[in-house]
Amino acid sequence: MCGIVGYIGQQDSKEVLLNGLAKLEYRGYDSAGIALLNEDGINLFKVKGRIATLRESVDAGVHATMGIGHTRWATHGEPSEENAHPHQSTSGRFTLVHNGVIENYQDIKKEYLQDVVFRSETDTEVVVQLIEKLFEKNQDTLVSFRQAMEMLEGSYAIALIDNEDSDTLYVSKNKSPLLVGLGEGFNVVASDAMATLKETDQYLEIHDKEIVIVKRDAVTIQKLDGSVVERNPYTAQIDASDIEKGTYEHFMLKEIDEQPIVMRKIIKEYQDEAGELTLDEDIRAAMKAADRIYIIAAGTSYHAGLVGKNLIEKVAGIPVEVHVSSEFSYNMPLLSEKPLFIFISQSGETADSRAVLVKIKEMGHPALTVTNVPGSTLSREADYTLHLHAGPEIAVASTKAYTAQIAVLAILAVDTAKVKGIELDFDLMQELAIVANGIDALTGQKEELESLTRDYLETTRNAFFLGRSLDYYVSLEGALKLKEISYIQAEGFAGGELKHGTIALIEKGTPVIALATQANVNYSIRGNVQEVVARGANAMIISMKGLEQDDDAFVLPAVHELLTPLMSVVPLQIIAYYAALHRGADVDKPRNLAKSVTVE
Ligand code: M6R
C-alpha cells in the first residue's frame, strides 16, 4: 500500500512524479504529495485526496531536476494534508517518503526523539526525524541513513532527499516493494515499474535491507555493512498500452472484457506446438513429491484457491487445504510430512501471504507462487513461480486475475495428473478454449446484465449470493465483488447453510442471486431458492445451458463441469460493475481500499 516515485536527472521532475503517482494510485489514494529540490531548496506540495487534486496544487512555475512523490493509503494517522508524505525533519534539511509500517516507531520516539515536536501522526515522520538526530552527531547523510535503516523494524520502502545535496537520492527497502529504473543521464525510483515505464524499461531489483545511492549517472547498491553489491538490470515486460484505459470508462470493465484474451494467452503460454503442457520439471517434481498441498491466499485469490483445491483434488488426487493468509500463522494446522505450499497472489506483494512464506521457508518447506507479477516479492522468495499472463490488473476489484488463477491451477492439476499417470477423459486446453469463447459471449450480454442489476440491486442495502459445491465458492467471490465496489452489504452462502441461520435475514424484497451450474445439486439449490422466495426474497437464478429452467434470469453457455466458475463469475463481475456505476461509486478505486495490500 502507498506508492513511491523518485526522479533525479536533467529534466523537470514534476511531470515524471505526477504521472508516475497517477499510475501508482491503485496502491492507495487518500492523500498525496511531492517534494521538489531546486536552488531555492525543497518545494513541498501535499493534499488530502487524489493525484488530480495534487496536480492542481503544484505550482507550475517551480522547476526542479530532482524530486520524490507519494500516494498514500493511511495506516498511522487519518488521511490529511499533515499526514500526507513527503515528511520533513524539524530543520527541513531531510525530506522523505515511505511505504510500509514501522513497527518500533513508538520505541524510537521514546528513546531518541523525546525533544522533537512532531507535525504528523505518522510512523514515517519518526524515520526522518531519526535521520536528522543521527546526522547531528555524525554529520554524514549516508551514515545516518544507514544507521536509521539498521534501527527500523517492520516494512518499509523509503526515498530520502538531503536538501544540501542535489546530486543524491537515498533509497532503501525491507519487505515493501521498490525498484530503481535506469536511464541516460537520469535515474528513477518506483514502487512498481508501471509508474516510470515512460522513462525506462531497465530496472534494478533492490533486496531487503540494501541501501541504494541514486545519482543522475550512477547507482550504487550497498549492504548495511557498506559493502558494494553488483547486480544486472532486467527489462520490464510491460506493454505501455496495457496500463491505459483506452476507450473504456473504467479499468474494471476493460479487464472483464480482457478475460477471453487472457484465457487464450494462458493456453498458448502453457503448451508447446505439439499440444504438450510445458510446466517446469522442478514444479512437476515438487507436485509429485507433495503428500498435501496448502494453498495460501487472500481475498479474490483465496476464492480462486478454493476452486483450485477442487481441481487439484479431483484431477491430480492430492489432498489440498486452502487458508486465508492472515489467519494461517495463528491457526497453523498440523502439517503433513511432505507439504507443498502454493501462494496465489495477483500482485505477488500481499504482506500477509509473504509473512506465511517467510515462516514456511524457515521451516524448510517448498513453495510455489502463482502470480501475475513474476518479479514480485512472493515470486522471488518462493522456489517456483507460475505466471498468470493476465497483463497488468489496475482496477482494485480483481477480475481477470481470478479467472487466470483458476485456469493456471487447472493446468497445474492436469499436468500433475499426467505426471502421475492418471488417465483423464478431457482435453483441458480444448475446454479452456471453449471457456474463452463462452466468456466472449457473456461480455456481449452486458445490456441484459445491466438490466438485471436494475431489477434486483438498484436500491437495496444488502444482497445474498447462494450456491452449492463450486457455485458456493463463486458466490463468495460474487459477494466480495459487489460489496467492495458498490458498498452494498453482500454475503455468499452455501445453499445448505441457509436454514441454519441466514434465512432469518430474508425479508420482502431481499435480493438473492443463486447460481445453478452444478448438475449434482441443481435440484437442491433450486429448492433453496424456493425457500427464500416463500419468505419474500427477490431471487434470480443464473444457471448453465443444459441445467436451465424456464424462469431462470440468465443462462450461461455450457463448459466442462470442473471449469464452471470461469463462466459463472463473469455475470457477477458485470452485475457488480453496474451496481457500483449506478450508485455513482468510484468503480476502479473504491473507498478505503488499495490494490496491493502490502501491510499486514
Ligand atoms: O494481490 P493479491 O491477489 O494477493 O491480493 C489479494 C486481495 O487483496 C485481492 O484479491 C482483493 O481481495 C481484491 N480487491 C478483490 O477484488
Give a brief rundown of this model:
With 600 residues, the chain is of the alpha/beta class. It contains 18 helices and 25 strands.
Give the CATH superfamily of the largest domain. Answer: Aminohydrolase, N-terminal nucleophile (Ntn) domain
Shape: globular
Number of helices: 18
Range of strand content: 15-25%
Largest sheet strand order: 3-2-4-1-10-9-11-15
- CATH structural class of the largest domain: Alpha Beta
Distance between the termini: 10 Å
Mean pLDDT: 96
Secondary-structure content class: alpha/beta
Give helix % range: 25-40%
Tell me the number of structural domains: 3
Going by CATH, the architecture of the largest domain would be 4-Layer Sandwich
Low-confidence stretches: none
Question: What's the count of strands?
Answer: 25
What is Rg?
25 Å
Listed once per kind, the bound small molecules are: 5-amino-5-deoxy-1-O-phosphono-D-mannitol
CATH topology of the largest domain: Glutamine Phosphoribosylpyrophosphate, subunit 1, domain 1
Please give the largest β-sheet.
Answer: 8 strands, antiparallel
Overview of this structure, please?
This protein folds into 3 domains: 234 residues, Glutamine Phosphoribosylpyrophosphate, subunit 1, domain 1, CATH 3.60.20; 194 residues, Glucose-6-phosphate isomerase like protein, domain 1 (Rossmann fold, 3-Layer(aba) Sandwich), CATH 3.40.50.10490; 156 residues, Rossmann fold, CATH 3.40.50.10490. It is built from 18 helices and 25 strands. It has an 8-stranded antiparallel beta sheet, with helices on one face. A hairpin with a 5-residue loop joins β13 and β14. α4 packs across α5, α7 runs antiparallel to α14 and α9 runs antiparallel to α16. The protein is globular. The mean pLDDT is 96. Bound molecules: 5-amino-5-deoxy-1-O-phosphono-D-mannitol. 5-amino-5-deoxy-1-O-phosphono-D-mannitol binds next to α9 and α16.
